[in-house]
Design goal:
Helix content is 84%, strand content 0%. It has 129 residues and is mainly alpha-helical. The chain has a single domain, classed as Four Helix Bundle (Hemerythrin (Met), subunit A) (Up-down Bundle). The protein is elongated, with a radius of gyration of 16 Å.
């Protein structure tokens, strides 16, 4: 189960790394109003990384719930680990494709990551039944 917990850690930290990447190299960052600064950005890279940051936060809670529910229901730890690693890989690629402005691949890895979450929750439901 250790692998899945490490994946939870990576997924929890990822939104912060994405927002740092979105702010890097842009002058005028205002730490007194970081959300206002992000919302006012017109540079496409900064806007994409902020969107990736928000999306990573949105994806974390269902993933965490899926991992913990699957573990609590007694799902095979190896299967939980596989789905967790796949999810994290998809989320890292999602951020990279957002940065590179490759929307089709970004959407594809988002969908695969979402499918991992659905699988974790479904396996938990089946194991608990």
């Amino acid at each position: 189960m250790s692998i899945a917990y490490w994946c939870l850690l990576v997924a929890a930290v990822l939104p912060y790394l994405l927002v740092l990447a979105g702010r890097a190299g842009f002058a005028g960052y205002d730490n007194r109003d970081p959300r206002g600064w992000s919302a006012a950005q017109t540079h496409p890279r900064a806007r994409r990384m902020y969107a990736a940051h928000l999306n990573a936060f949105e994806a974390f809670a269902p993933f965490a719930a899926g991992v913990l529910a699957a573990q609590a229901a007694g799902v095979d730890p190896g299967r939980i680990a596989q789905l967790s690693v796949a999810f994290v890989v998809c989320r890292v690629l999602h951020g990279a494709f957002y940065l590179a402005n490759v929307s089709t691949l970004r959407s594809l890895v988002w969908f695969v990551g979402f499918a991992c979450v659905v699988a974790l929750l479904a396996l938990a439901a089946l194991a608990a039944a």
